[in-house]
Write a structure and sequence with these properties.
Blueprint: H1 13-29, H2 32-48, E1 62-64, E2 69-79, E3 85-94, E4 101-103, E5 108-116, H3 128-131, E6 134-140, E7 146-153, E8 160-162, E9 169-170, E10 175-179, E11 183-189, E12 194-195, E13 202-203, E14 209-212
Antiparallel strand pairs: 1-14, 2-3, 2-13, 3-11, 4-10, 5-6, 5-9, 6-7, 7-11, 8-10, 12-14
Helix pairs in contact: 1-2
Length: 214
């Protein structure tokens, strides 16, 4: 589990280094257009894998957004796979322009984790919650407060990164993983949580407050 904050996450290096080298070769050879395109590609890769500093709120009983992106689903559902109860579901779609690091909404212990291979539908579609490749885990906070997080790969994002393991303790706002190139994360909360977000809202991982425990 990474503790230090680097401006670019290590998962971006296998893309950033070759792109930088290739762009430098284009420059040496005098290929102006390819050099220009190489610079744009290198800048995009650096931007995509950026790791901006976040100020984690210290308020009590708050639930933070696990990701940057747009809320594309908000409502109650029956969560039968893990929590096995009625839950509030919040789906956040991460476009290629959003930060793709995922952060823990609350402080708690990972008590269950399961990876599911699957399809690569557009992550903004509701069917992606069930059919797409995904990594799911249950986080238990104090007083047996349990939430479920599901990292979902989209048609362009074909790599889910998960730094933690079952049994690990995550601090609120701590980075636990990322998904490459356009993806989605589903957050399931107990129905008694008081939500303070709305459909279509853009949120920031580790900073935006999703709701309050009551």
């Amino acid at each position: 589990m990474p503790e230090k904050r680097w401006p670019i996450v290590k998962e971006g290096l296998p893309f950033l280094i070759p792109s930088s080298i290739l762009t430098f070769l284009f420059l040496i050879l005098g290929w102006k257009w390819l050099t220009f395109l190489g610079i744009l590609l290198t800048l995009f890769i650096a931007y995509f894998f950026r790791n901006p500093k976040r100020k984690i709120p210290s308020l009590k009983n708050i639930i933070l957004s696990p990701a940057d992106g747009k809320i594309v689903y908000l409502g109650e559902c029956e969560e039968e796979r893990f929590l096995k109860q009625r839950a509030l579901k919040i789906s956040i779609f991460m476009s290629p322009l959003d930060v793709h690091l995922n952060r823990s909404p609350v402080s708690g212990k990972i008590i269950e984790r399961k990876y599911h291979p699957g399809k690569f539908l557009m992550a903004s579609r509701e069917k992606a919650s069930i059919l797409n490749e995904q990594n799911a885990f249950v986080l238990e906070a104090e007083e047996s407060f349990r939430i479920l997080l599901v990292q979902i790969a989209g048609w362009l994002a074909r790599r889910i990164v998960f730094y933690a393991r079952e049994g690990d303790y995550l601090k609120q706002g701590q980075i636990f993983g990322m998904i490459r190139f356009g993806s989605r994360i589903d957050l399931y909360l107990p129905p008694q949580v008081k939500l303070v977000v709305h459909l279509g809202q853009h949120v920031k991982g580790g900073e935006s407050i999703i709701g309050h425990r009551v």
